[in-house]
Amino acid sequence: MGRPKITIIGSGQIGGVLAYHATSRKLGDIVLYDVVEGRPQGKAIDISAAAREDEFDLRIIGTNDYADIKGSNVVVITAGLPRRPGMSRDDLIGVNSKIMRDVSDGIKKYAPDAHIICVSNPLDAMVTLCQRYTGFPHHRVMGMAGVLDSARFATFIAWELGISVRDVNSTVLGGHGDSMVPIVRFANVNGIPVTELLEGKYKGDKEKAKRVMAALVARTKGAGGEVVKLLKDGSAFFSPASSIITMMEAILQDQKRLMTACAYLTGQFGVLGYYVGVPCVIGADGVEQIVEFELTPEEKEMFDASVASVKELVDCLP
Description:
single chain, about 325 residues, alpha/beta, six-stranded parallel beta sheet, three-stranded antiparallel beta sheet, 11 helices, 14 strands, globular
């Protein structure tokens, strides 16, 4: 039985780190595609030269020809202009829409049975365009955002409490932007609500605990922009790559993992016909189930506002 084939469209920062992560997890053979001649080939050689020391026997190739992605099981789209300081994700829609058309045509022609994980920004709009252009079933086209946003929320909680992030559970819903919705009541440390732990840390001062949690939520919403501002010449790439790996493993190994992903809704959470970040079960068939739960009135108001932002963006797509 042959190894799975993974294609990464775009061999920039995320693409390169993602390819290396995939080899370390021994997920399958890898194709790095890019329009820039030499870039994917150079990174493929560099990663391949790590095989002996990192103990993997996988084939990694770099290419500028979509024909080389033929037969891919999973295609990850990272291609597109990255954010620069002062730019919102929405500012990228014009140029990245054109790129998505070309990428989708290549996938449709050479990898018609693949699962697609879209990472390009603005995420909710780009995954929508990808599905429209490819015509693939909605369950095989998804966006990576919720895994990353939830991981960022968990990280900031762990830093505040001075504990291992591995013990923190968190959920972030909605669009991948400033209107995303971290679900505070679900944030916990091995089952213990974070709100209670914050109250304990601040000796029962509930108001201070609330202010700290509000700051953690705000930092989560602005985490991508915070990284962009600090880097000055690019956007996050290590943590997005790790989040993509989580989704790829769930598909390739049929793990049935429950995670937040940008998925197509058919009435769940009161949303019909749009891609939005929600809890999903991801396995060999892609998005196999959307897990719906009752939102509090406050959460529903924030979620609806986030969905409205997604709709506004999507409804303006070419």
